[in-house]
Amino acid sequence: MPLLQLLNRFLVKHWRQSQLWRRLxxxxxxxxxxxxxxxPVFSQQTVTLKxxxxxPDAPPWNNVMVKQFEEKYPRIKxxxxxxxxxxxxxxxxxxxxxxLGDSPYDLINMDVIWTPKFAAAGWLMDLxxxxxxxxxxxxxxxxxxxxxxxxxxxxxxxxxxAGMLYxxxxxxxxxxxxxxxxxxxxxxxxxxxxxKGLARWGYLWQGRQYEGAAAMFVExxxxxxxxxxxPETLEVGLDKPEAIQAIQFLLGTVSQGVSPPGVTxxxxxxxxxxxxxxxAVFLRxxxxxxxxxxxxxxxxxxxxxxxxxIPSQGHQGGSCLGGWGLGISKTTQHPKEALQAIxxxxxxxxxxxxILEAGYVPSRKELFADPQVLAxxxxxxxxxxxxxxxxxxxxxxxxxxxxxxxxxxxSAALTNQQTPEAAMESCRE
Length: 429
Fold this sequence. Notes:
By secondary structure, the protein is an alpha/beta fold. It contains 19 helices and 13 strands. Strands 1, 2, 3, 6, 11, 12 and 13 form a seven-stranded mixed beta sheet that branches. A four-stranded mixed beta sheet has the order 8-9-7-10.
């Protein structure tokens, strides 16, 4: 090595000149040896990556992702910080940390709707050049798109989620029906089964004033050919005829007795309990319902089918995309290690183990057909059809404000405080 050769020549030249030079030479050799000895120790110091998430999500992460990641990368520790149960409170904690200065979190566990806000604020590293098109092709397309903002990639999908339509297979068979393909068929089938006394309610959906109602409405809006906000032009489509028709459909399910009068106060668990008790034919909800509906103590075990959300006649349906993914904080001191962590937790092997442990929906397409996954979750091929037809909520930096406005006026329309026309017009003001 040039440095060692130079040092050797210097020492040989001066070694015999004096006792002082000999002592200095020995000291230089000693110091240089110490540096060589302890250099690798410093270069191999442990790096800790911090990651905040909701408390219920922490156990499967610690049991699978953290354990296996640290086995493969013993020099990198993945520290899960448990936050509140509510996702909006976790978002608030991330936001506060960024606003206060250097965030203590290296990796950011993001709900799909947080990506545009965090990216627009400059809080996330741009990952566009870190992942090739071939690497991204293994994920479902909507999940990848959910990680983009203004055509740049900021988030990799770890687990997917999408709204879906649950239906009682046994009741439809008894009444002589196939699963509905349109909203109109859903209402017709519901009313007939109700009139036959086979179920108390036809269709359950989430109408309370909260984010879940916005997700539900995105699907109905899609089903009538409408749109909420165009991310490219920021045009708002809520006052257009398609949006009015979507609200009128929901109001009609209540006025016709297909949906309960209290549906405008329901969240996911309210509707799940009614459906699982056997009182309804159809339910709009998320994948988490399936294992609960088919548990050994469930009255409807083995009697449930799933399908993508359906449209009105002449339109295309779509399920609202949910799910979680990882981004990297722009203030992290360990971007290289954070990127290694993202590549690991989104890998085929890690995600497969995560799914088998926790039952989450994968974001990698091949896992929906993996034999071991199917042995435990036989409905995953149907679930893939739902995920691939998912629609995104508007990818805009002001999403939180836009959602709050929609929730407020949608609730006013659904509870007859305002007409659908007046309520949706107010969304534009």
